[in-house]
Amino acid sequence: MIKFIEESTEYLKQKGFNNPEVGIILGTGLGQLINEIDIEAEASYNHIPNFPTATVEFHKGKLIYGTLGGKKVVVMQGRFHVYEGYTFQDVTFPVRIMEKLGIKTLLVSNAAGAVNLDFKKGELMVIDDHINLQGGSPLAFKGVSKLGERFVDMSAPYNAEIISKFESIASEHNITLHKGVYASVVGPQLETRAEYRMLKILGADAVGMSTVPEIIVANHLKLKAAAVSVLTDECDPENLEPVDITDIIAMANKAEPDMITLFKELIKSI
Ligand code: HPA
């Protein structure tokens, strides 16, 4: 894996990805942040050596480098999911590349269902802890200790300083920002009523199909990590309505301006 990481990083450096400070992974319906970036370099996932093989729906995936909020950033436009058939190592390979390029902070966004019924769709939640229900780990492979410690501490996987900065930015800009626990499932099917009941009992406030593998690897690499969910549906097992993925994407798009404000202001402040 080390050789693969070096090859991919070298390719990107030659394309002009020079010393980014912050890495950003953009989730479902949150792509507009790109419009705020002064773009200096781009690389299609299909062209980056050793990147996971792109699927058809993924042909638009690319890595972008530029300036946002006065900082050099590298942004993943489109991420890989376990539900698409990628392995945990595939899903997290780009995090290892971004770290090798120089990032010290990783910011992640995603779309999630609200399990905590005090939270409403269209609102945002900063993640302060997670429950990994994906049935595997991106660190469970033979060479892992060559890249960092195997038994990674997870007592505080989300950076407390960044969380409190997000909270101050939200209050300054009149954005409702909850704080809570994100449970990650594989998907792609949504949850049954019984599964939503279970998630609530387990202590989850939100549920989604991403983020946790990337955050585990960010901790493996000792990056400062933080993540924000846009709550796209309310997961009330006693009144569950069929959800349509187009509704989920529409709700994510609606919350996008708030998410953009949070990310931009946060980056300015670090
Ligand atoms: N469950 C899982 N993933 C999701 C959901 C959900 O309800 N909403 C958005 N992503």
Structure commentary:
By secondary structure, this protein is an alpha/beta fold. The protein has a single domain (2-269), classed as Rossmann fold. Helix content is 33%, strand content 25%. It has a 5-stranded mixed beta barrel with strand order 5-8-7-6-9. Strand 3 and strand 4 (71-77) form a beta hairpin. The radius of gyration is 18 Å and the shape is globular. 44% of the residues are buried. Hypoxanthine is lined by residues 111-113, 187, 190-191, 207-209, 232-233, 235, 248.
Give the structure's gist in a few sentences.
By secondary structure, the protein is α/β, with parallel strands linked by helices. It contains 7 helices and 9 strands, in the order H-E-E-E-E-H-E-E-H-H-E-H-E-H-E-H.
Topology (elements, then pairings):
Blueprint: H1 2-14, E1 22-26, E2 38-44, E3 62-68, E4 71-77, H2 88-101, E5 105-114, E6 124-132, H3 144-147, H4 160-172, E7 177-184, H5 193-202, E8 206-208, H6 212-220, E9 224-234, H7 245-269
Helix pairs in contact: 1-2, 2-6, 4-7
Bound molecules: hypoxanthine (HPA).
List keywords for this structure.
Nucleoside_phosphorylase_d; five-stranded mixed beta barrel; 270 residues; transferase; 25% strand; EC 2.4.2.1; globular; Nucleoside_phosphorylase_sf; 9 strands; Rossmann fold; glycosyltransferase
